[in-house]
Amino acid sequence: MNLLASITATAACILHPFRPAGAIRSNPTATSRWLAGLLSGFAMAAQLIAVEPTATDEARRGRELYLKNCFACHQMNGQGIPGVFPPLAKSDFLTNDVDRSIRILCEGLAGEITVNGRRYASVMPPAILNDADVATVLTYVLGNWGNPGTVVTAEQVRDQRAKTAYPTFEQLQRANQYPPLPAAPEGFRLREVARLPFKPVRITSDGKGGPLYVLTEGGDVWRLDPATGSLRVLFSANSYLERRTGDIGGPLFVLGMTLDAQKRLYVASNQQNRSNLPPQNIVTIYRSTAVLNGEPAALKPWFQTNYPGSPAYIHAVEHIAFGPDGSLYAGNGGRTDGGLTTTGGEWYGDGETPITGCIWRIDPAVEPPVLEVYARGVRNAYGFCWNDRGEMFATENGPDADAPEELNQIERGRHYGFPYRFADWTRKAYPTSPEPPAGLEFTLPIANLGPDGGFAGTPMYTFDPHSGPGGIVFLNDSFPEGYRGTLLMTRFGNFIQSPKANSGFDLLRATLQRNAQGHYEAHIHTVLAPLGRPIDLHLGGPGKVFIAEYSRATSAGESYGPSGRIIELSVDRK
Questions:
Q1: One domain, residues 209 and 338
Q2: Can you point out the beta strands (E) in 314-468?
Q3: Cβ atoms of residues 525 and 509 within 8 Å
Q4: Using one digit for the tens of pLDDT, what is the confidence trace for 316-342?
Q5: At 87, which CATH number?
Q6: Closest residue by Cα to residue 13 from 573, 569, 560
Q7: Closest Cα to residue 398, out of 504, 531, 263?
Q8: Which of 290, 390, 418, 433 meets the CB 3.0–4.6 Å disulfide criterion with 379?
Q9: How many domains does one find in the chain?
Q10: Is 194 a residue whose pLDDT tops 70?
Q11: Which residues are registered as beta bridge partners of 282?
């Protein structure tokens, strides 16, 4: 399959609670970093949510649970945060279907909802509360702030929980456990920076030790202080995304984010326009137009294009980054699995288009911005970077057929095979695979000389099938000998079970060398394993790499599970 398909197939998965009591007990050091940032707010809330002298023990317990589990998002009197977190006060969504509200508390909620006539598209994590406590806190919310006073029982919660992804409280607890951090390689330290209330897809920063910006697949941008682990929303998706809804709107995926030298933030989104068939994939790149309190502000549409795209395989724009020439590069994946020409209402029957399955280059100084196709035949480049010589390298996810995943050196004007060839295969991936145009030359991926990443005694081009190579960075002179001048890359991990049941879930190092023909080959070594579906990584300062774990699953046998975390791999200066 591919990395985007892995993500979008789980768009409705539920997320990890922002501050579960269980996590505080199991990992007090990591949790205290963000908890410290909320203590003052909780102290204020404790005063504002006054305890009436006549309140019953149950009501007092309800307020206590609300303060610990709901206050940070839904605020003092359940008013929420406009455009970000919906209100609980006089909430039609909450009160119109109490059983649904119970299930949301038990398994969380992702996706668009309408509350009191206003649209919200943020995420609701599951509450790590037993049946009795879910009943108590929900009874408290339903009995206050203009709500009807409905009483919820523990038996009612038990019955509704049985219908969720976590049929018992014990199963929910197990799903919300974080895996232990793997051992850091010699000369490095590894630490947990923050546990996230969402599934991350990108990290960016100024690269000099400033705050991290973390993107969710729904389009929210969060600011993360790497020193304290404190998080806050910088941009809610509703504040800038141009959405198409109803009959004309299809899936929306937001997967690209970067900063330029002027610290302008760029975010790339993809959404289907279904007003006419076949659907069109609308690519929009937003750019911040102002600075507020030292942070990017006012994301506005900057570049837009479109092409036919079926929801079955559309890979769209995933990674965006600035190259050493100052241009913005974008990986726009194939709109098919392997050049499919199936027709029908959902399909554009002519395979790929001139601007799909390729790398774009856009000069940010030109207005309006103009797209140039830099290289072709790249099915699904989730990550790319440049070394100190200005050479570009990209990871690439392969098809449903069991072809190796790829690491490519990307050069202008070259073709990397898709949809005609995969890896070093000379055979067709499918009987229906198109024939290449006469005279078209293909550039092979970088050969893997082992010992890891799929190597099995002979060179492989390049990784285990379906292992999901993702984010990639070049390590500069701030890293020690043996790492300096190498590439680090994540592998998200497979969810297609063939041909290997458990590949990826790791961080790899590629040491490049030229062969007799002048082509790059790589020795691949595992740096960290297992990781919880690592999806992106970013150089956040000298000797520091930040890694985004999408979820907590460290093997293909586990569900995608609740959301992951940001961890830091840094050079041990001692």
A1: yes
A2: 317-322, 328-332, 358-362, 371-376, 383-386, 392-396, 406-410, 447-451
A3: yes
A4: 999 999 999 999 999 999 988 888 776
A5: 1.10.760.10
A6: 560
A7: 504
A8: 418
A9: 2
A10: yes
A11: 271, 306
